[in-house]
Amino acid sequence: MQRGLTTLASACLLAFAGMAMAEEYNPVPAGDAQYRDCLVRVNKLYEGGTEKSPIAGQNKGQAYCTCLWNETPDDFRGNLSKFADSERGKKLDRVCTKYSNWD
Fold first, then answer.
1. What pTM did the predictor assign?
2. Is 91 among the domain residues?
3. Per the domain annotation, does 17 fall within a domain?
4. C-alpha to C-alpha distance for 46 and 60, rounded to whole angstroms
5. Domain count across the chain
6. Among 39, 86, 32, 31, which residue's Cα sits nearest to residue 65?
7. Which residue range forms the structural domain that includes residue 79?
8. From first to last of its 103 residues, what are the pLDDT tens digits of the chain?
9. Rounded to 10 degrees, what is the CA torsion of 58, 25, 87, 78?
10. Maximum distance among all alpha carbons in the chain?
11. What's 87's DSSP letter?
């Protein structure tokens, strides 16, 4: 019985995680400086940012920066990309890399 409940709980958790990743984020307001700075930095430092992402209408760099913009607290004022590269931002980097399919 315990094994069955564990298996069911694991399956539900994976299904929920998959649904959460499939959702799209709120659109970034036009002209947002943090988003623009993120795009400039990731496209300068990393390859593949202009490749198509799984998010309609966005390349991988745009999807990655959109994810970062949405996942950081509203009062965050720093550079999104630099934060994602920091020790504190590693978890967020993994989430947004997966979201943008930028492996």
1. 0.77
2. yes
3. no
4. 11
5. 1
6. 39
7. 27-100
8. 565 545 544 444 444 444 444 578 999 999 999 999 999 999 999 999 999 999 999 999 999 999 999 999 999 999 999 999 999 999 999 999 999 999 8
9. 90
10. 55
11. S
